[in-house]
Amino acid sequence: MNNYSPCRQDFDQFMVPIYAPAQPIPVRGQGSRLWDQNDREYIDFVGGIAVNALGHLHPIAVNALLEQGQKLWHLANGFTNEPALKLAKKLIDHTFAEKVFFCNSGAEANEAALKLARKVGLQSGHANKNKIIAFKNAFHGRTLFTVSAGGQPKYSQDFAPLPEGITHLPFNDLDAFKAAITDEVCAVILEPIQGEGGIIVADHDFLKGVRELCHQHKAVLIFDEIQTGMGRTGALYAYQHTSIVPDVLTTAKALGGGFPIGAMLTTTELGQQFVVGDHGTTYGGNPLACAVAGAVFDLINSPEILDGVTIRSQLFIDGIQKLNEQYSVFKEIRGKGLLLGCVLKEEYANRAKEIVNLGVDEGVFSLIAGPNIVRFTPSLIIPEEDIYEGLTRFGCALACFVNQK
User: Fold this and answer.
1) What are the residue ranges of CATH 3.40.640.10 in the chain?
2) pLDDT at residue 1, rounded to an integer
């Protein structure tokens, strides 16, 4: 067994078939480049799906991991630890939050947020204040509760009966929201930019109206910033581009720069509704994850990194537009910062995955966000030369795509 060399076919033999991975198996990375088992190089425009915000093997993250790894990895949640407290203070100092709950993933953060909102509604004294408003095409995780809150039936329809009391409305439709919200609503959950749903940016007036109506009806407003958070849009969190402040914010993905960690941020007023034993997690807030996340946070939360996101975003947009002048595949580019979606023209409908696959053949990794959108979520510090080289390779993929018979 020591001589065993895994291959792509082993995935089909050994693994539960909930993914369909590409043929190459990356074995090492550096910055925004990856190498497979055959030492072939790829430009990484995926970044672990907006996770590897500092690329691969960033020395600050690696050093934090090694340093903490020689001290303390895990404790029972009957104890606290210094890295968790330090990270919590950083999050509080640089957001609206006053209380933090650590977990291991975005789905867990959203699960905690929705449970908290349900308890707040129960404690309010208002009968039946347990309804949740979410939005069509949203994505909030894969637990039964969060997949039910997500507005994409393809992810939930095979797992009925689903948790009840969740209404899905059209995104960016304030009139529909006004008609739906009542005093029985305990929570509204939304993404400032819908990620998996197609890189759809929330209108400012929509967010403002939702915020005002949540206040009026005493509903907890939850911003799912799992994909938009930690500098992805050019601000530490996307809500900071606006005047709108949520009651609860969930964060994960890039928070650990690739090391699993998630968090729910909220106010003291709401956070104190949870009491000892109401919720929990075995691994959440462990010293190893929090030490890495603390180091990643310090680097990302700087003008140099955040301003650089905007610069790199424009390089991507300019480069994609130039390619599109040649190949005329996309009808628009949407998103913000380094969360970008290229929307296919109608004649190429449902073929985004083909472009992604051709990109792999050309040595560049990209994503889809639904069948009609090619998505880019690269490292926030991706070198300019990697952007240019990656887009050159992506252009070769587009050439193959339009020339296919």
Assistant:
1) 72-300
2) 57
